[in-house]
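Q: I'm writing a short methods note and want an example of a predicted protein-small molecule complex. Could you take the sequence and the SMILES for zinc ion and return the bound structure as tokens? Please keep the output block clean; save any remarks for afterwards.
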Amino acid sequence: MAEFPKQTARDSSSPLEIVLNQLACPACLGDLRIDADRVVCLACARVYPVVDGIPVLIADKSGLSNA
Ligand SMILES: [Zn+2]
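A: Understood, no commentary inside the block.
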């Protein structure tokens, strides 16, 4: 099992975090944050999956319902 090399102090942001800085929640346009292997909206608490390192930001597929 390969282990990812430890990051140095020069850059503490993962590529996914950098991508998320460019994106917003499709439901409420809130800020997104990585939570393990998921993406969580800080504004509405919707949870989106991350597939192969790519956040799947589809509001209809999220686990939260406003019903
Ligand atoms: Zn949201």
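A: Remarks, as requested: The chain has one domain: 15-64. The radius of gyration is 13 Å.
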